[in-house]
Design a protein that fits this description.
This protein has about 350 residues and is an alpha+beta fold. The strands form 2 sheets. Strands 1-6-7-5-2 form a 5-stranded mixed beta sheet. It has a two-stranded antiparallel ribbon with strand order 3-4. Helix 1 crosses helix 8, helix 4 crosses helix 9 and helix 6 packs across helix 9. The protein is globular, with a radius of gyration of 19 Å.
Length: about 350
């Protein structure tokens, strides 16, 4: 029986990093979305066009503590709005549902390698997610509370900026990311006051944030699944799935910084984004995921890396586990975009 060791976990995007878990490990139920958050019916694709000229312009709202944007616009939804994702339980349930869609979109051979894979959660603030093998040689996926906090902050601010022409992501980045670049205990949570009060409760904003949240989650864990079915972890062989590692044992891996594996990372990025786009196409007429979620996440980590002193070897000194165990995020964005552009050309 092997203990968790350097070779048994793949760091997020670099044979992915390590986290400890809080709730007991649970198996992914890929074909059954969480009952508390059923998918909306007949939610049309392209609810939120990207071209401001295609929007309905409303009176500019007031933005406290910052100048108003030159233009503010809001799209007009034509289908049911998605509910907000509030609280860690709702976010964990959403991840299970997203994983189910990703797995269903894989080829039958790859599905056989990862279906039923256990998903475990870490209550720490570390911004991380990873694929690995437990002490029995069985595959698992893990996510920290910190990664949920980060994705929630990105999706809420990006949705607000997209719909209303604000710059709340910049405000969030300026307020939170410098501390994260210096302090391993700093939280990625969206602070109160970043979202203007007159916009915060808008149900259209919450619905769009929900879409982006799922899209970023899909990229994150599409990459993680790829590390398993591409054979990078060496333990996803179609065997009966275990229950996942003991959360108390995961923390022992936090002191290990595996060497970068650029080939594996590029392969996981490429296969992961194809999985996201395939799953996005399959979920029509609901909102179809695209590559923007991956670009948002990678840019987020690039911003932290920049604020922490640059890239390359300097990132090894960052308290953010993702940056200590992964290549420069800016180098990954062109890979994701190039693969996505090819996919779009092949799937008009």
């Amino acid at each position: 029986m092997k203990k968790l060791a350097r070779s048994s976990a793949v760091p997020l995007f670099a044979v992915l990093s390590i986290a400890a878990c809080n709730p007991p490990a649970q198996s992914v139920q890929p074909t059954h979305p969480p009952q508390a958050y059923p998918p909306p019916q007949a939610y049309p694709q392209q609810t939120y066009p990207r071209n401001p000229q295609q929007q309905s312009y409303l009176q500019q709202p007031t933005y406290p503590n910052s100048p108003p944007p030159a233009q503010a616009w809001q799209p007009i939804p034509t289908g049911p709005l998605l509910p907000p994702l509030i609280g860690i339980i709702a976010q964990q349930q959403e991840l299970r549902a997203v994983l189910g869609e990703l797995i269903n979109a894989l080829s039958p051979s790859n599905q056989a390698l990862v279906r039923g894979i256990p998903l475990v959660f870490d209550s720490t603030t570390e911004v991380n997610a990873f694929a690995g093998c437990d002490e029995h040689g069985s595959p698992f996926l893990a996510a920290t509370a910190g990664i949920f906090d980060a994705i929630d902050a990105i999706s809420q601010t990006k949705a607000t900026d997209e719909l209303f022409g604000t710059r709340t992501y910049d405000a969030y980045a300026n307020a939170v990311l410098p501390a994260m670049a210096k302090n391993p205990s700093a939280r990625a949570t969206l602070p109160m006051g970043i979202i203007p009060l007159n916009l915060g409760a808008d149900p259209r904003r919450w619905s769009r944030a929900h879409e982006l949240y799922d899209e970023i989650l899909a990229f994150t864990f599409g990459h993680e699944l790829a590390h398993h079915y591409l054979g990078h972890t060496g333990c996803a062989k179609g065997q009966a799935m275990g229950s996942g590692p003991d959360p108390a044992r995961l923390g022992r891996l936090l002191t290990t910084v595996p060497a970068f594996n650029q080939v594996a990372e590029a392969a996981a990025d490429s296969s992961g984004i194809i999985n996201v786009l395939d799953a996005g196409r399959a979920r029509r007429p609901h909102y179809a995921w695209n590559e923007r979620g991956g670009v948002f996440l990678l840019q987020y980590f690039a911003d932290i890396e920049r604020l922490g002193g640059g890239g390359g070897v300097a990132s090894l000194l960052s308290p953010v586990q993702f940056l200590r165990t992964h290549p420069n995020p800016l180098a990954r964005i062109p890979i994701v975009q190039t693969v996505a552009n090819t996919w779009h050309a092949q799937h008009p």
